[in-house]
Specification:
By secondary structure, the protein is mostly beta strands. The protein is built from three helices and 18 strands. It is globular, with a radius of gyration of 20 Å.
Amino acid sequence: MFSSKLVLFGILLGFLTIGAYGHSYLTNPTSRSNQKQSVTGCRGPGCLGPCDVANGKGSTKAVTIARGASINLQWPRNNHAGGFIRVAWTQTANSDNAASFDAGVQEIFCHERGGCKPDSASNPNGGDSNPADGSVNPCQMTITAPLHLTDGTWTLQWAWFGGAFALGDYYSCVDYVIAGGPTGAQQTPFYIGGDYSYPGQNKCKFFNTDRLHRCVNEPCNNPVYPLNQEQSGPAYGITAASSSVTTGSKPVTTGSKPVTTGKPAAITTGAKSNPATPVTTGRSVTPSPVTTGSAAQPSVTSTTAQPETSGGRTICSASTFGYQECVTANTYHTCVTGRDGPLWSDVQSCQVGLTCHPSATANNIYCY
């Protein structure tokens, strides 16, 4: 009885520490209800998603971007370690329907990435002293607006799940007007590992659940794993480097004919089962290249060739995982997860007429 009370006290303390801040939410771009200003997260039972507010009820206007544009996502750690971030898209008219986002998943990555961290390295699950609006040391990730989006109104969903200690699911949405840009086939959802606790590794630290829609209410009401016990691994039902996900039907592959139904492969969210089998060919796939003139991507600035693997691919280090570098005047590649470790992806091209430029002040490249 005594130990049970201690566990319960620990869980409640986790909530009370920053209860007023609502734990996390998008601070960049501005979400529908401007959660950066209100420092309020959308979580159950008071907010069940799939967005922070319903379609048409927000205070933030839609942003116009082109397909292939870079979108830098930022959110505060707010004293809570671990978990996964899922990024998904649907047409704005369908954005009040959670299943519509489930069918439009772009990628999943770790919550604690991009610079956010606890104040003390000796207490990785401890607190941080950064402001709740995420203006200092935010967690962040840069994504690319998918090339299969048609011109018109679309909504980007940011969802956080599996956070310490018994957190529920959290949601933010940003509305966009997609106008122009290159077009391409719809990609299979992919997973990118690596966070503060496991830098450069194909896993994330998480608690309670490795999938969305299990911890609907907070405290977590339906955990997959023992409540409040730290776990590590990939997100459920999805494999690294743009591999296929478990959907119960034939997955979309990166070399397949472009999807014409408008319905991308979904991530399974039901009972626990084994994750989909990882790709074993040694070939890794990178997200769509940036083809807009001024879009920045994470990168290393060196263009020195790396040692080859036995399969003819080149090795990159764990410290450069997720980075990109220029290869030639108008091509680049990305450090992604391979079968035997981090590998440089196949060479990607800037849009016709654009040139690849490394940034002198940050690990970025620009195609312009």
